[in-house]
Amino acid sequence: MIVIRDQQLRLMVLAQLVRELQQGAQEKSPPPPGFTEQQVEELRALSTVELVKLSEMTEPRVAIEIDAGSLEHGLRQVDYLNKRSRQLEYFIRHGATSNMLTKLFRISSADVTLKRRLFAGTSSLLRRPSMPPHPVREQIQKRWFEIRKGKEREPIRAEDYEELHQRYSQHTFATLWAVVHEFDNE
Description:
Elements: E1 2-3, H1 7-26, H2 37-45, H3 48-56, E2 63-64, H4 68-93, H5 98-105, H6 109-119, H7 134-148, H8 158-167, H9 173-180
Antiparallel strand pairs: 1-2
Helix pairs in contact: 1-3, 7-8
């Protein structure tokens, strides 16, 4: 439990408590655990001036408790979002097409345009890719099938293209996408 000593934070927490108690009264819910009916009534009846005075006192002790499980989940989500953001930037900087970005990252074409301006500007990597020589295309397709082996029923992930790009980093993502989808029936 973290004890809150800052008066403004105490005021915010107490004001939030009063709002929730008032909402609970409208919904006819029982008092929160640890509170008596009398305490709930007295808190709900406090004026703003009285609430400020209460927040300035050392008693009652105002503390927060953070649920460790949900905190861990939140931290994992932030880490995932940061990873996806770095991954998106990497794809844009290495010439991924708008179509590729919208499919792999599920973002709108407007967002793709904004991100592209932010990360790549008017880079020459954004131009239409030229196809590599036939033997190189065969090597790229062979490597792609190795990467996707055993995952044929799973959706294609950005990580699959990253792995391919590690091996063929001299080519843009747009070129790799074009080679991989050369024989698709789109």
